[in-house]
TrEMBL record:
Organism per entry: Ectopseudomonas composti
Protein's UniProt keywords contain Transmembrane helix: yes
Name of the protein described by the UniProt record: Glutamate ABC transporter permease
Transmembrane segments: 20-50, 71-88, 108-131, 143-165, 208-227
Entry's Gene Ontology molecular function annotations: transmembrane transporter activity
Sequence similarity: Belongs to the binding-protein-dependent transport system permease family. HisMQ subfamily.
PROSITE patterns xrefs: ABC_TM1
PANTHER family linked: GLUTAMATE_ASPARTATE IMPORT PERMEASE PROTEIN GLTJ, MEMBRANE COMPONENT OF AMINO ACID ABC TRANSPORTER
ABC transmembrane type-1 domain ranges (all copies): 29-227
Keywords: Amino-acid transport, Cell membrane, Membrane, Transmembrane, Transmembrane helix, Transport
Length: 245
């Protein structure tokens, strides 16, 4: 089967008549970045709280943390996206449900919340692993200095744990960025959605997804290089992070 290559397609007007296909892809990449940053912010904050709960000496907090992790980690992301977008508004009070469905860019907000909760469950395990890698003496020292348990986590344990698990946090950020493509299923025109729209309108499949692949690669490489700089700054001597030659 012959294929008609056309790399100039990116400079032709898209179906909306206001942008070229290249600008449509760039706007899709912007939606991807916004979704990833919003979702990972939720994941980092919520995941830290759940990770602390998972290592708490209080049994009921450990149970709540475990329940959250097992719930969001073991349901496929695509199923969760459908549940958040199609099912949750029907479970809310009628007025609130209608407001949510009519909210401008509701697909964006739904994707941010869904991805945030999904990756929060994974981040909780990352934070828990970092906390459990610390010696028990650090918690005891904090309590012995007169700090409360909350202050001990905030000022002693979490700062050390974050510095140890920077590589794992980087991996979660990369996964979150790539998982934004699932939001296509609820109508968010992020990068994958924009590439698919270009392919369906122009029939230039290879060009559309080659451009999307390149943009994903650029975004993820930027994250990797930025987080490597953070990793070097946050390296803790004696905790297994080797110095680059």
């Amino acid at each position: 089967m012959s294929y008609n290559w056309n790399w100039w397609i990116f400079f032709e007007p898209s179906l909306d008549g206001t942008n070229t296909y290249l600008m449509t892809l760039i706007w899709g990449a912007c939606w991807t970045v916004a979704t990833a940053i919003g979702a990972f912010t939720i994941a980092l904050v919520l995941g830290s709280l759940v990770g602390v709960a998972r290592t708490s000496p209080l049994g009921w907090m450990r149970a709540l943390g475990t329940g959250f992790v097992e719930l969001f980690r073991n349901i496929p992301l695509l199923v969760q996206m459908f549940l958040w977008y199609f099912v949750l508004p029907e479970l809310l009070p009628p007025d609130l449900g209608r407001w949510f469905k009519q909210l401008p860019n509701s697909a964006f907000y739904t994707a941010v919340i869904c991805l945030g909760c999904y990756h929060a469950a994974r981040m909780a395990e990352v934070v828990r692993a970092g906390l459990e890698s610390l010696s028990r003496g650090q918690r005891m020292a904090g309590l012995a200095m007169g700090l409360t348990l909350v202050q001990t986590y905030r000022y002693v344990l979490l700062p050390m744990a974050y510095r140890i698990v920077v590589p794992a946090i980087t991996s979660e950020f990369l996964s979150c960025t790539k998982n934004t493509s699932v939001a296509l299923a609820i109508g968010l025109m992020e990068l994958t959605g924009s590439a698919r729209a270009m392919q369906e309108n122009s029939f230039q499949t290879f060009e559309a997804f080659t451009a999307a692949t390149t943009l994903y690669l650029v975004l993820n490489l930027l994250i990797v290089f930025a987080m490597r700089a953070v990793e070097r700054k946050a390296a803790v001597p004696g905790y297994g992070l080797r110095k680059e030659s």
